[in-house]
Fold this sequence. Notes:
Layout: H1 4-7, H2 28-34, E1 39-43, E2 46-51, H3 54-61, E3 66-67, H4 96-105, H5 110-134, E4 138-139, H6 140-145, H7 147-157, H8 164-175, H9 181-204, H10 210-219, H11 226-256, H12 259-266, H13 271-285, E5 293-296, E6 300-302, E7 305-307, E8 312-315, H14 317-320, H15 355-372, E9 377-378, E10 386-387, E11 396-398, E12 400-402
Amino acid sequence: MSTSTDTDGLPVFPAARAARCPFDPAPEYADWRAADGLRRALSHGHPMWVVSRYDDIRAVLGDPRISADISRPEFPGSDMIGEDEPPMFSRRDDPEHMRVRRMLTRDFTVKRVEGMRPRIQQLADEFLDRMIAKGQPADLVRDYALPIPSLVISMILGVPYSDHEFFQRHSAVLHEAHASEEEKQAARGALFGFLLELVGRKEREPGDDMISRLLGERVATGELSRELVAMNCLLLLIAGHETTANMIALSTLALLSNPAQLARVRDTDDPAVVANAVEELLRYLSVVQDHLVRVATEDLTLGGQLVRAGEALTMNLPAANRDTAFLDEPDTFDVGRDVRGHVAFGYGPHQCLGQSLARVELQVALPTLLRGLPGLRLAVPPEKVGFRHDMAVHGLHELPVAW
């Protein structure tokens, strides 16, 4: 248990972004990268080592001595997990992590996601038409960026889209940087209960969806419990709409702020150019700020820092993607350069399961929007845009646009 002397004077992570350029990570991260060792900081009330260098993050996320298992008593927040809530696969180590992950992978392979591209395109066209029909100004977050990934992940899992306001409301609490652990526990419990009840319904009335498949192929054989299906689908539901929705909206604003870059995305008919632009947006914006927490299982040295067994580490992905050790001129936004190897989706065995889906959604949503509305512009002054500075996933609360 940490005492006040352990935490007095520690900076808070994630740190506040500079108001002058909210696309950039907090300016102090450059100092954290340059300093010897790792930075000690408070994250969600817990003292942790913040890993900010590109090479250090890749080393940590590939090191079997570093645990992602939230059931460890020393893991931050482990005491807030409900007794009836099994850990998500992403919060377990191998072999359990990989055992469950393999059962979920089939629905997120490149081939499977590419097969969904026509349907995703259809949804983007439909939501864009609806937004235009409603008239301007419009809120791009509510009318376009959020419904596309929300509906797609709902279709994959078999979650009724009619419940989207319920899971978006509770998901927001889980990503609220200043929400208490008790508030997050209540939100997670509400979502878990919702998914567990849906699992029961799917047992009685199976459909053509992931939950039904897992029930028929894995629960029936005893490989998974109903609770484990519900908890892992909760993870996929939240991650499947929260991060991509914020990427669509924030990417749109970044492109509107850089007309030359916007034109390169809007005016090309080459899918490879669009795909490359999406990779640069993922790197440049790095919306996941503080989700990747780990615990050292033994004493070790990381980035020149002695880390004791039982101490927690958190990955500073926005800082790593702006590291000159990874990329020359990393603060420059250039959709034409090669940024393969960025860590926006993490790294190593726990790398984001849904990254192929997120890529396709962005590759479809952004050109569809920019080509469909060539006159797209902000409907408010830039300083009036509502950034999600208070959320674990960076993005926009709303984006008023006109055309």
